[in-house]
Amino acid sequence: MTQSQISDSPAARRIAFATIGDGREVKFWSGTPFHMSKSLAGEGHEVVHIGPLNAPILPLYKTYSRLCRNFRRRSLSPLHAGPVVAQYAADSARKIRAVSPDIVFAPAGSTFAWSVPDGVPLVYASDATFRLVENYHPNYRNLSRAARDMAERLERDTIARADLILYPSEWAAESAIRDYGADRSLVHVIPWGANLEEAPDRCSVLGCRKPGPCRLLFIGANWEEKGADIAVGTLAELRGRGMQAELVICGCTPRKPVTQDGLKIIPYLDKNDREQRNRLDQLYRDADFFLLPTRADCWGIVFCEAAAHGVPSIAPATGGVPCAVRDGETGILLPPNAMKADYATVISKTFANPDRLARLRRSSRDAFEARLNWRAWSRRVSLLIQAL
User: Fold this and answer.
1) How far apart are alpha carbons 254 and 83 in whole angstroms?
2) Is 102 within 8 Å of 13 (Cβ atoms)?
3) Using an 8 Å Cβ cutoff, are 309 and 317 in contact?
4) Which CATH number does the domain 3-193+373-387 belong to among 3.40.50.2000, 3.30.230.10, 3.30.70.1130, 3.30.70.100?
5) Alpha carbon distances (Å) from 214 to 125, 247, 283
């Protein structure tokens, strides 16, 4: 689509896509802003990236925050320090005015989005509210009183300023309404998609299963927070029950060496590298279950990626996970306090029932095609944007 076609289209909007980091970089926030902006552009909108934003004083507060943690004091979140917030807000306002957008789209932008210039509609998207992540998500634990107060104020002011508020889960949406007084008519739940450059072919991922043991796949960047220890324990439990099982852990490593028959650890695979991307795709294709006993998650893009590959997820019903993993459709949910024996029981029973496993594989892929992809997200968002 040419620039003139974009400008002439009654549906097209000039969107200032505002992010603290660089939304054009696939490594920023696991590629979610990258895929958001790309899918909005695919709907015919002119997307102008406002970011990365500049806060020259930020390194000073990062150093101070590290010192607080080292001395086991309550920490100041550098992004919520008053001077940092002021610099981000000033830089974003200046850059937004410079591009004269029809709309500002600010994913996870509560640090600055409250200051979007008057007269410009604001679309605010996030996967949680501060009230939900405080002392739940690892990035928001043990905060100082000043940091908590600032984060709370920024969340409230941004929600009050927004003309459209988007979340991927009811868990987050209800908090915005309940805890921050958001107008229910402005809040919409639209699932996020799989961060894949290309969706795998349906027939290839739902083809005949390769014979062999039960293959489990775990992908996560933090061994402790994502529950890798429970995953390894689940593998040991299954093998202890006489079941042939294997587990691949990709994306993290334990602090101390872990030895377990059937376990393979891949510290990191770069999605930007074609060869490594293909290797990751093959891990999904080989897996029977995607196992992630996460301790805290607001959504879980990896669950969408597993669904794209027809792999049912096994996960706890915590945070926004139940909206990404629908029990009996895209996987099986367990209680948040489930242990290795609980996971092993669910996996062994499901694996022993090939018909049920095949149904879960098909329904997982169906869910990806229907709603857990960025095209479906952008179509719904684009319609809401038109209403503004």
Assistant:
1) 37
2) yes
3) no
4) 3.40.50.2000
5) 38, 9, 13
292 near 218, Cβ under 8 Å? Answer: yes
- CATH number for the region 202-370 comes to 3.40.50.2000
Complete DSSP assignment for 211-254: SSSEEEEEE-S-TTTTTHHHHHHHHHHHHHTT--EEEEEES---
The rounded Cα 312 to chain-centroid distance in angstroms is 18
pLDDT digits (tens, 9 = 90+) for 194-221: 999 899 999 999 988 888 999 999 999 9
Determine contact, residues 242/214, Cβ cutoff 8 Å: no
111 neighbors 154 (Cβ within 8 angstroms): yes
Q: Which two tokens stand for residue 304?
A: 């969408």
Structure tokens at 366: 């169906």
**84-93, pLDDT tens digit by residue?**
999 999 999 9
